[in-house]
Write a structure and sequence with these properties.
It is built from 10 helices and 13 strands. The chain has 2 domains: 131 residues, Jelly Rolls (Sandwich), CATH 2.60.120; 196 residues, no CATH class. Strand 10 and strand 11 form a beta hairpin. Helix 2 packs antiparallel against helix 3 and helix 3 crosses helix 9. It is globular. It is an alpha+beta fold.
């Protein structure tokens, strides 16, 4: 919603602000902004990619700037208009980065002073659907998880990468809370199921976040990605061009179509690492995790594959490599260590993605 602005200019603004950080300033003209008798309004609302920018005045004369993206969640900066000198013309400005948002309001009158507010996490979460629709998720005193919306069998809204990971952690916590009279074998099952859940959560997070970055304005290097995930023969016969044409026909990005066709296996640590490096220049070895912890993560993924393809009751997870390796047994301690390892990795990776910047 942007009043009195031509559609082509709105599109230019939408394209310009689809980035992890920026500033928007404009003059807003309204005869009722400071009128307590007039109900709330939304002077500014633009969805740009997966970003949402919203300025809202409520019935209590509070003016708020909301910024939402999958990576940061929704943050809000609010000021009381009773502390601003009334004017029919006001200067509005807001800025956003992954670390913070700021909001500024100043009356366009002689002696008018600029009032500012810093953002905080918002209890009202906003999300942008695949069709550009805007959804409110939760509210003050209402917390929800794993929200998804489907229309005619197709997803309009799905959990963010970070939300999906939080659901994974919650699932493991529930599993850890169980008990049984079966003794040690119960601990083995809990540990093995924990590894299965964590690796699935790892895959879901990495795949979803990989796509979110493009929607947040970080442009992937598609040429390098294609060179690493399509064989020379496939490139020679034009397979990437065919997929690009399909993407254009479906009004989705080339990257989305590649992921839809499962050209990248995000359950494979090596493929996942290579994809993030080639598309976004992000190296897992540089996100702040010790090399031995990364090696442990890779081994946990290997253990999960044995659990799935051999038996959920496997007690010695690395048996084919013993000796020379020391045996690794499935138990509660391993499950707890695995949860800690994966959670640290996802947290560090997520923070690293928030530091990525557009080059233009």
């Amino acid at each position: 919603m942007m009043r009195n602005i031509p559609p082509d200019i709105v599109e230019q603004i939408r394209e310009a602000i689809c980035r992890p950080e920026g500033t928007v300033s404009f003059e807003y003209v309204s005869d009722v902004l400071f009128d307590p008798k007039v109900s709330g309004e939304i002077p500014f609302e633009v969805a740009s990619g997966a970003h949402l920018f919203r300025v809202e005045r409520d019935d209590e004369l509070r003016l708020s700037f909301y910024h939402s993206s999958p990576g940061t969640g929704t943050r809000v900066a609010t000021m009381d208009l009773k502390n601003v000198v009334p004017s029919s013309k006001v200067f509005l400005s807001f800025s956003w980065t992954p670390a913070e948002i700021n909001f500024y309001v100043g009356p366009r009158i002689a002696g008018g002073q600029l009032v500012s507010a810093k953002g905080i996490p918002s209890p009202r979460q906003f999300r942008v659907g695949k069709d550009g629709s805007i959804f409110q998720v939760g509210d003050v005193g209402v917390e929800v998880m794993g929200v998804s919306v489907y229309q005619n069998g197709k997803p309009l809204l799905q959990p963010t990468a970070l939300d999906a990971w939080k659901c994974t952690v919650e699932s493991v916590s529930v599993l850890f809370g169980g008990s049984s009279e079966k003794g040690h074998i119960f601990d083995v099952v809990v540990s093995n199921l924990t590894l299965s859940i964590l690796v699935t959560g790892f895959e879901a997070y990495c795949k979803t976040r990989f796509l979110e970055l493009e929607q947040e304005g970080i442009r992937p290097d598609m040429a390098v990605l294609v060179s690493k995930f399509f064989s020379q023969k496939e490139r020679d016969v034009g397979e990437p061009d065919v997929i690009a044409s399909e993407a254009e026909a479906k009004h989705v990005s080339f990257l989305q179509k590649i992921i839809e066709k499962r050209r990248i296996n995000f359950q494979s640590y090596e493929e996942c690492k290579r994809a993030y490096n080639k598309a976004y220049g992000l190296k897992f070895s540089e996100i702040g995790i010790a090399s031995n912890d990364l090696e442990f993560l890779k081994r946990l993924i290997e253990y999960r594959h044995r659990i799935v393809h051999v038996s959920s009751l496997i007690g010695m997870l690395n048996q084919p490599k013993v000796p020379p390796e020391e045996p690794v047994f499935s138990n509660r301690k391993l499950g707890n260590d695995a949860l800690k390892c994966f959670d640290i990795f996802i947290t560090k990776l997520h923070n690293a993605t928030l530091r990525l910047q557009r080059l233009d």
